[in-house]
Amino acid sequence: MRIGLLTEGGYPYASGDAGLWCDRLVRGLGQHEFDIYALSDGPHQEESGCVTLPPQVRGVRTAPLWTAEEDGVMYGRRARRRFTECYGDLVTALCDSSPSQADRFASALYGLAELARDQGGLVGALRSEGAVRALERACRAPGALRTAREARVPELLTVAGQLERALRPLSLDWYGPDGPDGSTLGSVDLCHAASGGPAALPGLLARHFHDVPLLVTEYGVRLRTHYLNSGAPGGSASDASPAVRALLAAFHGLLAAETYRQAARLAPGNAHARRWQEHCGADRAKVRTVHPGMDAAPFADVGDAPDTADPHTLVWVGRVEPAKDLVSLLHAFAQVRTEQPRARLRIVGTSAGPEGRAYLGHCRVLAAQLFPDEAEGPHAVGDNPVSFEELGGPEAPTLAETYAAGAVVVLSSVVEGFPLGLVEAMFCGRATVSTDVGAVVEVVGGTGLVVPPRNPRALAQACGALLRDPERRARLGAAARARALELFTVEQNVEAYHGIYLEIVSQCPALGGVLDEAGDPRPFAVPAEARLPGRWTGLGARVTARRSPGWPAGPPVRGASARVGSAAGTAVRGTPAPDTAVRGSTPAPDTAVRGSAPAPGGPAPGAPAHGGPLVQGASAVAVVPLAEGAR
Fold it and tell me: What is the pLDDT of residues 54-69, one digit of tens each?
């Protein structure tokens, strides 16, 4: 089948976790064809170029989400009135928290999309003074949220700017019935959005305009991300104001609810994301949890080799930032040292941005205060039991060797989505101690110790218990490796999505229309086997978007004669016999469709009185024999 893969700020331009799982999915499903529709987050992504794409990728279309040039579209009076009504309904839904606003938001969203298709774009209208005035009227209207009524002009401008950025996918030319090489979302069999939010908007419009089914994968729900990032350091004062946070949270919540309502299936990456989806209105019957697939090969040697790690070493691996709560880890390690003086802690990771560098500096100072350099004797050089290292250095050249150097791997986060670092440690057969956040319990199961977050005493007790008991460490490490190889490999991820694809298309059997060289429809041009696994290509015809079924205008198409050795009047598999009528086509002269008037004339000379039986397997053809009383 043909898949339209929708991404935002990731594949095929970005490296790292955001693009790796998409690349593994595309490469693992070689029996399908993929069209990539990418929303880029910055110019650096497009300048760096695409990753090497497999042959099943038909093409890549990119739209910059980080900027939008003025489209130069001049609206007439009717178009301006139409925009004001639709945009006014959309922002009114944001300012009113009643459940009935969900339908109003959806109607306004699709109205704006239809206006963008008819007029050629929305960029200028969304940036206009009329959009800001419509937002102001909605905020000042009776019944609006109290925080919305308190919005001032700078905050209104901020919200209008954020809405314009989020609605940029409405102005793209991806939704037409035809395009370069047929590369539009209307000609795919299935849209797969790699995340929610703006990446799912093209899938919603393909669903609205062409009835293309939509699959949404989420490892982190956009509404939760908005809550976590609201008021973060580095933002402007207007971005952190209650009015801006409330209005944008309402937008993300309503967009998520509409996405979940229209999607054929939802594929959260873990139970934590699934609970957030259900909180936003997702139907449980649509949800299929698919864990991320990770490559276990780099960790195979460490997992299979005997344990040669220092039995007194704790290892922490990750990105240094406040959410990782290394301060609690350092205080917990101080308690571990009181009971086990030989214990050591290795912190391996890099900081990201000014905030991360400042936090790393703070942790270094705290470690120097808690653990002064100690020496074993009067002539020995002092040494600190806590070391800060970077991945790729002489002490930690690879991830596998870093995990292999520790007896216990620790995770101390207060905020976490899907803990990839824990899965890597489990691939290496290491026992883990982690905090109960995000999807940690779902990943670890019963193969590691889990403690409450921001609790140094509980963290210290769990680490100390494993350091004192090597047999328990070995049992937990072996169980962790077996669990990771069963649940979190690339193979299980690809197989799960392949099954979901087939499940969706089995419930949405309509195929795009196939046109011949003259542009006329070709009935029966796509075989039923096209839905089965395999590469059924080489039709040599253009595939158009779905359209309403119609009746053929020309004369009926007569079936081919039966094969040699077949009974007279019997239809060859997939081909109607001369004395039969195809359901949905104009009746042949010698046959009558059930419920229609008798056919003129009688049977052809030498033909049997009744139409022959239908050969088994010709499910697309229905043969209706002519009754004796109707002749």
Answer: 999 998 998 887 777 7
